[in-house]
């Protein structure tokens, strides 16, 4: 299904399996019919990327974006019924409580918030020291889970909201909960880690060599789909902790995944702006528009250590201005360009006052001390490259790959 003008960042399936809601870096959300594979409504409100979406009861929808706003919609209406505000950074995750009364959201301002869907009252849950990347309710609705770049899973016991903190080996991008309450986390090291309801690690599976950025679990709890920035989705048997197959979606990041209620059909949304349908049990694409996948965009750089380092950046940046824009600006013509000067991209206001000019030295400094310290106010996720050799390989690669 094609309709977005940018990468598809978020997917949600309606409870009856007949509808799909997608959010994109193009600032729009689209409500689709899965019976006809056609767009039924385009929702336009957000001023920046739509990072998270969900279905609510009574024909309502919710969208959240990098503009730090949450919009609650009634299907068919052109404007939101209600808008929730208060965040100091992009919102990247949403979860609806099992009883439909509460909405949870996670933000790069390092907070989690609980919202009453009846009156809009909110509560802030603080404790994460880095970006919050995922939230999920437990099946009984008594706990809320959050994961962040600070390596922690937090289990917030409701209603008091006091957290149990579990520290894992790598920064966390996603969390999902199985029907029996088992917790699954996805990390930047490509690993899935399973935990018991009280936060004890009970197993792990390698999903792939690149960071896991999205997770979903089939309705019967048997399958996990883990999407990575390398353009693949790992299908994992949860009980045996084994990798069943890997779907090669494209050479570009897969940002979002969602199972249909039939427990075997998987929807994926990627950086190429397309939504694809798969049979998770066979690994086969469903639909004529899914035949064939693009080649690995880094094939020409095989064996280049700088290209290997850059794979962690491809989720947000292209090397060519001919490609579809992703979360961040294209890096084409990077060296010699003043920060926040590329036409056509909406930069953070804080960056526009800086005197940084991108060179191998300034790019290396960015990743040595981290974006938050070097470019405060940026929307770029916090990340560092600890090895001077890796930083040099990356800057050398960018010089070759982005020159015009």
Over all CA atoms, what is the radius of gyration?
Answer: 20 Å
Under CATH, the topology of the largest domain can be stated as Methylamine Dehydrogenase, Chain H
Q: Number of folding domains?
A: 2
The CATH superfamily title of the largest domain: YVTN repeat-like/Quinoprotein amine dehydrogenase
Quick one: overall form?
Answer: globular
Largest sheet geometry: 4 strands, antiparallel
Total helices: the number is 4
By secondary-structure content and strand pairing, the structural class works out as mainly beta
Mean of all residue-level pLDDT scores: 91
The tally of strands reads: 28
- Please give the CATH architecture of the largest domain: 7 Propeller
Query: Roughly how much helix do the residues carry, as a percent range?
Result: under 10%
Please indicate the percent range of residues in DSSP E strands (runs of 2 or more): 35-45%
CATH level 1 name of the largest domain: Mainly Beta
> Termini distance?
33 Å
Contiguous low-pLDDT stretches (5 residues minimum) are 288-294
Walk across the major sheet and give the strand order.
Answer: 1-2-3-4
């Amino acid at each position: 299904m094609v309709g977005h003008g940018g990468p598809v960042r978020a997917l949600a399936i309606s409870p009856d399996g007949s509808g799909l809601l997608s959010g994109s870096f193009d600032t729009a959300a689209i409500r689709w019919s899965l019976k006809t594979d056609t767009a039924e409504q385009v929702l336009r409100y957000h001023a920046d990327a739509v990072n998270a979406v969900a279905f609510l009861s009574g024909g309502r929808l919710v969208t959240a974006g990098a503009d730090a706003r949450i919009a609650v919609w009634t299907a068919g209406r052109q404007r939101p019924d209600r808008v929730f505000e208060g965040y100091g950074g992009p919102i990247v995750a949403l979860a609806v409580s099992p009883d439909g009364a509460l909405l949870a959201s996670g933000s790069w301002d390092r907070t989690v918030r609980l919202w009453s869907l009846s009156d809009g009252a909110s509560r802030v849950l603080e404790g994460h020291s880095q970006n919050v990347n995922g939230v999920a309710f437990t099946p009984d609705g008594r706990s809320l889970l959050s994961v962040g770049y600070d390596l922690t899973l937090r289990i917030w016991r409701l209603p008091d909201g006091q957290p149990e903190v579990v520290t894992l080996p790598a920064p966390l991008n996603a969390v999902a909960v199985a029907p029996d309450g088992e917790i699954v986390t996805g990390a930047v090291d490509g690993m899935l880690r399973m935990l018991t309801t009280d936060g004890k690690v009970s197993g792990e599976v390698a999903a792939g060599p690149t960071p896991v950025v999205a997770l979903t679990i089939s309705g019967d709890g048997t399958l996990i789909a883990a999407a990575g920035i390398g353009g693949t989705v790992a299908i994992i048997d949860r009980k045996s902790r084994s990798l069943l197959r890997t779907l090669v979606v494209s050479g570009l990041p897969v940002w979002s995944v969602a199972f249909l209620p039939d427990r075997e059909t998987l929807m994926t949304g990627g950086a190429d702006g397309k939504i694809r349908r798969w049979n998770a049990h066979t690994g086969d694409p469903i639909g004529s528009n899914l035949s064939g996948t693009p080649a690995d965009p880094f094939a020409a750089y095989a064996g280049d250590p700088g290209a290997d380092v850059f794979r962690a950046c491809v989720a947000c940046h292209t090397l060519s201005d001919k490609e579809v824009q992703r979360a961040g600006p294209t890096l084409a013509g990077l060296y010699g360009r003043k920060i926040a000067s590329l036409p056509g991209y909406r930069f953070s206001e804080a960056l526009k006052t800086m005197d940084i000019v991108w060179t191998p030295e300034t790019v290396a400094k960015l990743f040595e001390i981290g974006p938050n310290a070097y470019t405060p106010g940026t929307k770029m996720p916090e990340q560092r490259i600890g090895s001077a050799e890796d930083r040099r390989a990356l800057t050398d690669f960018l010089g070759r790959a982005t020159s015009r």
